[in-house]
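<goal> How does this chain fold?
<sample>
Here is the protein in question

***
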Amino acid sequence: MAHITVAATHTKELPQLLLSHAGWAAPAAAGEAAVTGQLAVCAGSMEHAGFLDGVENAISTDAAVLAILLLPDENGNEVATDRIQALADGGARCEVVDGRSPLRDAIARAAGIALEERSITVVAIPISQLALPELAGPFGLTPRTTVSPPARRVPHADDVSRVALALSAARNVVLVAGGGTADAHDEVLALACTLQAPIAHTLRGKENLEWGNPYDVGLAGDSGHSASREAIARADAVVLLGTDFAYPQLIPPSATVVQIDRDARRIGRRTAVHFALVGDVGGTLTALTSQLSLRTDKAFMVESTARRRMEDDRLRSEAVTAAFDAENVAALLSDVAGSDAVFAVDMGPEWHRGARHFRTNGSRRVIGSMRHGALADAIARAAGAQSSDVERQVIALVGLRGAAQLGERLSALARLGLPVKTVLLNPCPATTWLSDDLSGIDVTHLNLFSDARSALTRLLASRGTAAVEIALGVPDQRDRNFPLRKLTTDFTNDLCSRPAGPRRSDHPMKGRTS
């Protein structure tokens, strides 16, 4: 790693974030790339197993990341080969530099693929290769290397016509927008207007289609809004836009399913489809909408969107400042956060329902391991996002799995000069995870009788690294008989009985969101 670190510190044109915790590298790069839309680079070695764990977590985040992996000598090649193969099986593009291909060419290829596919690519370099004369100096990397923007893809006109006929024959059409709808907001709304179709979205599609959308019926899936579930249940046709949708049980067996995606590998991967169009969502929808006639029957769309508004009104009427469950905390935080805030979310059980209540507006971002389901990488992603713009409001949303090392990680953020704001949801009344004496960090503890809105407002107004720990269901000392509120009815006791730490297998939504 000394070769990489020295090279990075001598490359003045590129911003760097040098992290001591190897597991942070790839999630931090993913967080930076998600916010900037540009390529981010991370590096680590086989000596640090946490680095590869982080790469694995960052695979399915639709962010352009190049991971440089230093391989050991021949004694460790078998283990290295197995880990690289595991990354490839998980969806990462991997290349081992073996001397037959120049390192510069391997880096350029990997960077191009990462930007083209919005994915993570891995270039593995044996330590012995670093001794080659052509790799002397600043590692042969240059910030002036440019990569052409991804080419737009549009399916064949005959295929588009067949889908147009199928949708014209369907009475109730529902659109489901995923992460692949980035930059296609207007095109999706144009199709919805033409078909008078309600629009549901996945967590990864939330920031793309929730805002400025009169056809919105909320989050789809097991943890989604009831309005979206009922709309899909009544649909004669469901159009999956930039998502392979992991909840096929929600779609009626009689419904026609259309999937539009830029990546052909995702077609039919988790939901069986009747029609498939491979191409950019925006360009494909422009071609599709031009072949459809404007509908005048708005009944299905009006009923579905009205149900969503009723659901929101009910939440706001039930939410009181002292009601510390994840959904109400998220709603309060959404109210007081900045208009361009970045929410970096641990996708554990504490936040996976609350995340749907972060209101987006086209400028806010919601980032996290939505597909992979990593439970303790929000701080790392927030660090990467904050490093790209220290003036922007970046909020890390942490659950119990990320609590054990949170104090240490907050101290690391303070040392790096990153003013990330952290909200920890703690469903276990018996344990306090954040100490009040963390050097250089403003820490606040809240319970049922605290003024949460004021506390969250103060948190976001803080100039430096700051954190709030919210004890869900903890009664105030003034009333020991106050009944404990639960985070949910099922998993609070289960969470508190387990050792804290990241365990992806516990995540109820692993592999569920796209």
Q: What stands out?
A: The radius of gyration is 24 Å. The longest strand covers residues 65-71. Confidence is low (pLDDT under 50) at residues 5-14, 136-145, 474-495, 497-513. The chain has three domains: 2-135, 157-310, 319-506.
